[in-house]
UniProtKB/TrEMBL annotation, chain A:
This is Pyruvate dehydrogenase E1 component subunit alpha. Its cofactor is thiamine diphosphate. NCBIfam families: PDH_E1_alph_y. It comes from Sesamum indicum (Oriental sesame). It is an enzyme of class 1 (oxidoreductase). The lineage of its organism: Eukaryota, Viridiplantae, Streptophyta, Embryophyta, Tracheophyta. InterPro entries: DH_E1, PDH_E1_Alpha_Subunit, Pyrv_DH_E1_asu_subgrp-y, THDP-binding. The gene is LOC105168190.
From TrEMBL, chain B:
This is pyruvate dehydrogenase (acetyl-transferring). The gene is LOC105175732. InterPro entries: THDP-binding, Transketo_C/PFOR_II, Transketolase-like_Pyr-bd, Transketolase_C. The lineage of its organism: Eukaryota, Viridiplantae, Streptophyta, Embryophyta, Tracheophyta. It comes from Sesamum indicum. The keyword GTP-binding does not apply. Keywords: Chloroplast, Metal-binding, Oxidoreductase, Plastid, Potassium, Pyruvate, Thiamine pyrophosphate, Transit peptide. It is an enzyme of class 1 (oxidoreductase). PANTHER family: PYRUVATE DEHYDROGENASE E1 COMPONENT BETA SUBUNIT, PYRUVATE DEHYDROGENASE E1 COMPONENT SUBUNIT BETA. The pyruvate dehydrogenase complex catalyzes the overall conversion of pyruvate to acetyl-CoA and CO(2). It contains multiple copies of three enzymatic components: pyruvate dehydrogenase (E1), dihydrolipoamide acetyltransferase (E2) and lipoamide dehydrogenase (E3).
């Protein structure tokens, strides 16, 4: 057994000093649900709170699903990159590749009744919340079958049934909204939490601290998640924040720093945070993560950081590679099976794109739908009521 | 200041039903049904006589109350049962009734809870409904407005009170981007049934920053509705309608109107958010106004009547969208329009209204539209200067005289 572990250890990254410890027997490739305990690569750091343990309970099924989901997200973002360059996606397109572990790990720890709200880097979180590839691509291309009927675009993905509240373009504005979701959850006493996500750039917004103050004052079940990818557009975090320890910025609100490239660490942290928030009010999670692409498609991403840095992270900390190594070391699947999964995922994405390309453009009358909701004393006319008449749905 | 007078929401029936068939655009409302009976006007054409079925009192709406030419006719009000109250009490009554009716309605704002509201609109509600439903927020307009919008996305119906409308400028991003646009950008998935209300307008020497009129800033935000109340009767009705509306509504109150007294019906009533109010029917000139300027206009009207003019005064109430139906019918009758508003001259409600009327009713106008608005200056502290910033009755009289030459 020790030899197996030894061989497994050599399989992994040669650069980092982390070690996996296996405490259950190896499982065959049957996607079973027998538990495996894995240790996260880095410990958690707490601020005014005792961090959770590094040992995470997981199952082969979960690990394989992590792999598949992350591969799907990665593939989707890369495909979006090509679509943007082919001018099928216009405007702003902010890609999430590199940060998939946060989306996937969070989903594993919560239910669809919990709410997630995030900023504009929302494609993968949308997918995690139950959005389909077709809805995503159609929305990106501005077609009718998009999740927001083509009227939102890349920055406005929403999925009400999945508890995904978007999708917001203005930096930081989603955090008070997130506290509002938490307020509603407290109001209706439904034992769910809200994850309000923001980036290291948004962490310097005043409304964040205002919202945090209110959440702490009223013990709202709000979990503020800072996805720290170290760059606020083109400005590195040390150039924008006096104190880049974002998990400590809550001051009176406890915080936890998590390795955001490790899906299992994210899962553990979110589970811990959910339990905490339901009892005690807000908590801040800082996910130490990285984005491979630039801020958006119009940013090459290499003017403010070196290519070596990017490829270094890709080699050492890539979330998909980490799970791949974990799966292989536990013999949950063979190398070929994982490659097949990736091929499958690629095919799925290509099919979805083809289908999305077939989807029709919105009807011109859609310009005026959904401006107002049909209700008491309301009609969707413009200020002069004459030309802008719409047929309400 | 007028202390008690009846306004009829449906008073336009007497005047406009004849013109209905000839109107240049068909309103989806079926006008003939508006005569005579008591009902709630729904603009999708449906009627309900009697409002909330859970409410034991039969809902009635006095639609045919005639707007009397004299303002202070207490005699006509004494014959109608009801109760007398001040405007802020009317707002509170409307708010309380809605909070009783729907447990999802909640209020948030600065000092609304334990303090009772800086203008006493929420007095006593925190004791009755609890601290969570009448929430005292810290001084953080941007984020508590955002919080209200987030809560509304899940189905709650929050009412945000800005202690003074001017403070809501801090929440402009939330109101514009999230409140107004979320229903559209989410493809209809989320409804934002918030009500944002607060006092604005020029008060008594409150200084420039506390005398702002935000109607002009908010009017271009797509997706919101704006209404301005001016009497206890319409304050209560509009408050209730705004709370029941599925859209975000901004309810503009005025600092100086909170102590207006009027007799309002005991029965429940909900007014139409998009309808203008015929204050005084007339023949010679249409005067369009809203909020506090209504009283300046009515004061000027007394003088004008003595001089032999017959102005038609309409309180437009709905600032977005405009009730061009009522306004149009009036223009077709009088052919002269005077707009009296408290907004700034540049880019104010009057400016949009002038453009709208010119676009739609140009052929019916005998003279160019005259718009009297506040001066484009920060409101000064000195009383005399402040008086000159705002439109005074004498100016209204002069404008009418010139218009009707």
């Amino acid at each position: 057994m020790a030899q197996l572990t030894q061989r497994a250890a050599t399989f992994q990254r040669t650069l980092s000093a982390a070690a996996f410890s296996v405490s259950s027997t190896r499982c065959l490739n049957t996607a079973s649900t027998s538990p495996i305990t894995v240790e996260t690569s880095l410990p958690f750091t707490g601020h005014k709170i005792d961090p959770p343990s590094r040992s995470v309970e997981t199952t082969p099924q979960e690990l394989l699903s992590f792999f598949r989901d992350m591969a799907l997200m990665r593939r989707m973002e890369i495909a979006a990159d090509s679509l943007y360059k082919a001018k099928l996606i216009r405007g702003f397109c902010h890609l999430y590749d590199g940060q998939e572990a946060v989306a996937v790990g969070m989903e594993a720890a919560i239910t669809k009744k919990d709410c997630i709200i995030t900023a504009y880097r929302d494609h993968c979180i949308f997918l995690g919340r139950g959005g389909t590839l077709l809805e995503a691509f159609a929305e990106l291309m501005g077609r009718k079958d998009g999740c927001s009927k083509g009227k939102g675009g890349s920055m406005h993905f929403y999925k009400k049934e999945g508890g995904f509240y978007g999708g917001h373009g203005i930096v930081g504005a989603q955090v008070p909204l997130g506290c509002g979701l938490a307020f509603a959850q407290k109001y209706s006493k439904d034992e769910n939490v809200t994850f309000a996500m923001y980036g290291d750039g948004a962490a310097n917004q005043g409304q964040l601290f205002e919202a945090l103050n209110m959440a702490a004052l009223w013990d709202l079940p709000a979990i503020l998640v800072c996805e720290n990818n170290h760059y606020g557009m083109g400005t590195a975090e040390w150039r924008a924040a006096k104190s880049p320890a974002y998990y400590k910025r809550g001051d009176y609100v406890p915080g936890l720093k998590v390795d955001g490239m490790d899906a299992l660490a994210v899962k553990q942290a979110c589970k811990f945070a959910k339990e905490y928030a339901l009892k005690n009010g807000p908590i801040i999670l800082e996910m130490d993560t990285y984005r491979y692409h630039g801020h958006s498609m119009s940013d090459p991403g290499s003017t403010y950081r070196t290519r070596d840095e990017i490829s270094g992270i890709r080699q050492e900390r890539d979330p998909i590679e980490r799970i791949r190594k974990l799966i292989l070391s536990h013999d949950l699947a063979t190398e070929k099976e994982l490659k097949d999964t990736e091929k499958e995922v690629r095919k799925e994405v290509d099919e979805a794109i083809a289908q999305a390309k077939e989807s029709p453009l919105p009807d011109p009358s859609e310009l005026f739908t959904n401006v107002y909701v049909k209700g008491l004393g309301v009609e969707a006319f413009g200020a002069d009521r004459k030309e802008l008449r719409a047929v309400l749905p | 200041m007028a202390s008690a007078f009846m306004q009829g929401v449906g008073a336009t029936t007497a005047l406009s039903s004849a013109n209905y068939k000839n109107s240049c655009f068909a309103s989806p409302r079926s006008l003939p049904e508006r005569k005579g009976s008591f009902f709630v006007i729904r603009s999708d054409g449906s009627l309900s006589s009697g409002l909330n079925p859970r409410n034991s009192r039969r809902g009635t709406l006095s639609t045919n109350a005639v707007a009397t030419k004299q303002d202070n006719v207490t005699a006509s009000t004494a014959s109608k049962p009801g109760h007398e109250l001040l405007l802020f009490e009317a707002l509170r009554e409307g708010l309380e009734e809605e909070m009783d009716r729907d447990p999802r309605v909640c209020v948030m704002g600065e000092d609304v809870g334990h303090y009772g509201g800086s203008y006493k609109v929420t007095k006593g509600l925190a004791t009755k409904f609890g601290d969570l439903r009448v929430l005292d927020t810290p001084i953080a307009e941007n984020s508590f407005t955002g919080m209200a919008i987030g809560a509304a996305m899940t189905g709650l119906r929050p009412i945000v009170e800005g202690m003074n409308m001017g403070f809501l400028l801090l929440a402009f991003n939330q109101i514009s981007n999230n409140c107004g646009m979320l229903h559209y950008t989410s493809g209809g998935q989320f409804k934002i049934p918030v009500v944002i209300r607060g006092p604005g307008g020029v008060g008594r020497q409150l200084g420039a920053e506390h005398s702002q009129r935000l109607e002009s800033y908010f009017q271009s935000i797509p997706g919101i509705q704006m209404v301005a109340c001016s009497t206890p009767y319409n304050a209560k009705g509009l408050m209730k309608a705004a709370i029941r509306s599925e859209n975000p509504v901004i309810l503009f109150e005025h600092v100086l109107l909170y102590n207006l007294k009027e007799r309002i019906p005991d029965e429940e009533y909900v007014l139409n958010l998009e309808e203008a109010e015929m204050v005084r029917p007339g023949e010679h000139v249409t005067i369009l106004t809203y909020s506090r300027m209504r009283y300046h206009v009515m004061q000027a009207a007394k003088t004008l009547v003595n001089k032999g003019y017959d102005p038609e005064v309409i309180d437009i109430r709905s600032l977005k969208p405009f009730d061009l139906y009522t306004i149009g019918n009036s223009v077709k009758k009088t052919h002269r329009v005077l707009i009296v508003e408290e907004c700034m001259r540049t880019g104010g409600i009057g400016a949009s209204l002038t453009a709208s009327i010119n676009e739609n009713f140009h052929d019916y106008l005998d003279a160019p539209i005259v718009c009297l608005s506040s001066q484009d200056v920060p409101t000064p502290y000195a009383g005399v200067l402040e008086e000159w910033t705002v439109v005074q009755p004498a100016q209204i009289v002069a404008a009418v005289e010139q218009l009707c030459q």
